Amino acid sequence: MLESLETPEEVDALAALEAHIVAGRYSPGDRLPPERELTSSLGITRSKLRRALDELEREGKIWRHVGKGTFLAMDGVDGLAKLCNRVSPAQMMRARLALEPALAREASINSSMSALSEIQMYKRRAEQAGSWEEYEACDDLFHRSVAEATGNDLLLSLFDRLNQVRRAIAWSAVVRSTREPPADHASFSEHDRIVAAIVARTPDSAFLAMRDHLSSVSNRLFGEA
Fold first, then answer.
1. Which tens digits make up the pLDDT trace of 88-122?
2. How far apart are CA 45 and CA 217, in angstroms?
């Protein structure tokens, strides 16, 4: 089960918190503002802020000390910002092509029934999205659910690190011509093939389906396969 970030709103809250930390030029070891100040600055509820903080703590980017506050870890979001400044959208997509097909293959071998249900749920949510922003949040959760279905915490950690870079740099380069994904959006059928291969427990097919999907995405967004 995904421990947090189960809705597009929670994904947005995490992105807003990370952006706030980067914009504030916090350094490793710095203390973040109190929760009350962060909720006001970010315009989110305290529950969504806490979900976002829980996720950053789970990823090792912050640490909390009862009675003292929340602090950036030594390689916290500041390190992520520096990495993002060195990576282009095309490089980010090539990194995804190196990692995510292997994750799909591992998911087809190791996924539990509950993990399969999560993958299918986020696929449906992406198809039902009423805006590109909502679609991208659901697509994010779909790909993360595939990574989580591997049952391998190290692989999931690698995916999370790559996905943080994707969130930070990818979509600023994308221009959308419609308000929401069209009914025949190519990613829908590509997701179908990924899910079918994982459910069927066919590792090679899962690998190829994810590779073909990411190549298609790269070509559509950046003109690169």
1. 888 989 999 999 999 999 999 999 999 999 999 99
2. 33
